[in-house]
Structures are given as C-alpha cells and as structure tokens.
C-alpha cells in the first residue's frame, strides 16, 4: 500500500499544503478550508492518519475518500464527518471539507471578483494523482508543515 504525506499550513483564509509520496517527492499542492474546530462543511479535517479509498461520487465521479473512524471521519457515516474527498477544485470556497490538488499555488478571482489564494490546474493535478494511485487504496498522513 502506498503512503502519502500531506504537509500543510493553516491560515484564516484556507489551508494550503504539499502532498508528497513516502520518500518526500512532491506530487502536488493542495487547498482546503481553514481549520474551524472540525465543523462539518466548514473546516478542514484534523491532522492524523487516514485510509484513502477509491470512491465514485455522484457529483465528482471517480475520486478518493478519506476514512479514519478514530478521528470521526468515515465515507458514509455514522460519524462526525462524512464524504471527505480528494477531488478537483481551485479555491477554498469551492470546498466543503474536502482536499483539492493543484500543480502550483496562485491567485484567482472568486465569485465576487475578489483575488483569493488558490491552487492552479487542479484537474491536471487530480488526474496525475489518480494515475499515481492506480485505483488502489492508500494511506494518507496529514501533518503540520
């Protein structure tokens, strides 16, 4: 089983990280919601170890789901957090607790026309990550950078 390590930094406007393989090789950048005490739909998930499971989402199609019952995260529940996915998105406001990959960090306009931090080329990064994972389960370790 492959292991991924997400090194992330928490900011008031979002959580930004670097996703690496078990040898420290960078695979992509990431964006998530800010840490808001693990509130459903508003917060990134807590640091810890998760199972990363191939998943078919009605909204996003083929993606990966996080599961760690000890941390209150499962795919379908019952738990504090469900349906925490890795899927394409560029901005924090496009996420509800999930993780989005990108090729690099940048600035994009949000729906109100305001410049916000983001990841760029999310679909490309996501497809590269899917290829690398090869539809196999993996382990994801999330920790502070």
TrEMBL record:
InterPro entries: DUF5675 (IPR043732). It holds the Pfam family DUF5675. Residues 11-134 form the DUF5675 domain. It comes from the Bacteria. This is DUF5675 domain-containing protein. It comes from Vibrio mimicus. The lineage of its organism: Bacteria, Pseudomonadati, Pseudomonadota, Gammaproteobacteria, Vibrionales.
